[in-house]
Write a structure and sequence with these properties.
There is one protein chain. By secondary structure, the chain is an alpha/beta fold. It folds into 2 domains: 56 residues; 60 residues, Chitinase A, domain 3 (Roll). Helices cover 32% and strands 21% of the residues. The protein contains 3 helices and 7 strands. Strands 5-4-3-7-6 form a 5-stranded mixed beta sheet. A two-stranded parallel ribbon has the order 1-2. Helix 1 packs antiparallel against helix 2.
Length: 154
């Protein structure tokens, strides 16, 4: 039988859940990203207490797994504070671009766990961030959907 049609365990049957994958990249975070991680750890600790009180074995297993991941990310976080403007795109910077079709887009380069592309926050290891880091205002970068000119770096 193909593995595509086999239900993965959620831990309810007493089976161990697979660990969440940890990125091989440095765990760079902005100060806001560290606060986000700390809040996630606190939320999970509260949820773990509630799951234990409810004797929810599957919930306890899932939350413990998530707590191991986020506690590890908190422990290994390397906070990168905003630096003085250097004229080049760097970690933590917000970059305004103008695409060939005239549309403007804005990206903030952040850590992997704080990335939220729908809100313009991209991971520093993403292909777009890798193209942008080190570039300056006026530079043109080639994105997947065409060229874009850097208008502003904050």
């Amino acid at each position: 039988m193909s593995r595509a049609f086999v239900k993965e365990s959620d831990g309810a049957e007493g089976q161990d859940l697979p660990e969440l994958l940890v990125s091989p990249h440095r765990n760079l975070v902005t100060p806001a990203g560290l606060r986000q991680t700390e809040a996630t750890v606190e939320r999970l600790q509260t949820a773990l207490s509630a799951a234990r009180a409810a004797e929810d074995r599957a919930g306890v297993a899932r939350i413990q797994r998530d707590l191991r991941y986020w506690s590890g990310r908190q422990r290994t976080a390397e906070v990168v504070k905003a630096s003085a403007a250097t004229g080049a795109v760097r970690f933590g910077a917000t970059v305004a671009l103008q695409k060939q079709d005239g549309k403007h887009v804005r990206y903030r380069i952040v850590g992997e766990d704080e990335a939220d592309p729908a809100h313009g926050k991209i991971s520093y290891v993403s292909p777009i961030a890798r193209l942008l880091i080190g570039a300056a205002v006026g530079d043109v970068v080639t994105l997947a959907d065409g060229a874009a000119k850097i208008l502003e770096i904050r």
